[in-house]
Design brief:
The complex is a heterodimer.
Chain A (H helix, E strand, L loop, with lengths): L2 H12 L6 E5 L4 H12 L18 E3 L3 H4 L4 H7 L1 H4 L4 H12 L6
Parallel strand pairs in A: 1-2
Helix pairs in contact in A: 2-6
Chain B lengths: L7 E7 L5 H10 L3 E8 L3
Parallel strand pairs in B: 1-2
Classes of the chains: A mainly alpha, B alpha+beta.
Chain lengths: ~110, ~45
């Protein structure tokens, strides 16, 4: 996640209604998923951007997670996500995100 | 199930994965509102 993007998100989140905000990812790998998830929950792990040391604590989900898929009408999901669902390594992405959330999370 | 209805959603897509417009379509169809949208590209 680039530095400009981190700054934009920080301003947006700190601008209000944080309790209604969630993040939905479309990242292609376990590694990229974890990096973005950590940046938006605990702060920038690379300590390079505006979110270094800033734990936004946003709920982070990936669109390939089964509990996200169930929230979306099936015809929309199949049209928008379907082709990539079988190209990306969904189990690796989902398990990496679960680890990034930590053992205390029930999501 | 993740509740997206009435949520303010940051849609962070990626060109090599799922792009943000596809995420937006899913979020809006589930009753959420997109407040930030970007499709990253690392090429």
């Amino acid at each position: 996640m680039d530095l400009e993007e981190q700054g934009s998100i920080q301003r947006l989140v700190e601008g209000g209604e944080r309790e209604r905000m969630v993040v939905l990812l479309g990242t292609p790998t376990a590694g990229s998923t974890v990096m973005v998830a950590l940046t938006l929950t605990e702060g920038d792990p690379s300590y390079a951007g505006p979110l270094a040391g800033v734990p936004l604590g946003l709920p982070v989900y990936h669109v390939l997670e089964e509990n996200v898929k169930r929230a979306i009408p099936s015809e929309v999901y199949e049209r928008e996500i379907g082709p990539m669902e079988f190209v990306l390594d969904a189990p690796a992405i989902v398990s990496a995100l679960a680890r990034a959330r930590g053992p205390a999370s029930d999501r | 199930m993740v509740e997206l209805r009435d949520k303010l959603v940051l849609a962070l897509g990626e060109r090599d994965g799922i792009p943000a417009p596809a995420l937006r379509a899913c979020i809006e169809s589930a009753g959420g509102r997109v407040i930030y949208e970007v499709t990253q590209c690392f090429v």
